[in-house]
Amino acid sequence: MNEELLTVPDAMAVLKVSRWTLYCLIRSGELPSVLVSKRCRRIPRNALNGYIARLCEDAA
Q1: Is the pTM of this model over 0.90?
Q2: Which of 19, 28, 29, 42 is the most buried (most CB within 10 A)?
Q3: Is the dihedral of CA 10, 16, 20, 24 positive or negative?
Q4: Is 4 helix (H, G, I), strand (E, B) or coil?
């Protein structure tokens, strides 16, 4: 997965969370996303990596 924009299922697989959890992260602003079209949401890879980095920092 070298794409810059991940689909919701791709991001779910990386984080190993449910669709509901992923959309909660997006709604809360913890995980930024973009709308490519009216119903096509994508998660930038750098946003996902940043979220994971913050989780690791908080756990330390």
Answers
A1: no
A2: 42
A3: negative
A4: coil
By C-alpha distance, which of 10, 21, 15 is closest to 52? Answer: 15
The residues near 38 (Cβ < 8 Å, ≥ 6 apart) are none
What strands, in cross-sheet order, belong to the sheet with 5-6? 5-6, 40-44, 34-37
Which residues touch 21 (CB under 8 Å, ≥6 apart)? 15
Burial grade of 19 (CB within 10 A; 0-12, 13-18, 19 or more): exposed
In this predicted structure, the answer to whether residue 59 has a pLDDT above a threshold of 60 is: yes
Please write the tens of the pLDDT for every residue from 9-46: 999 999 999 999 999 999 999 999 999 998 899 999 99
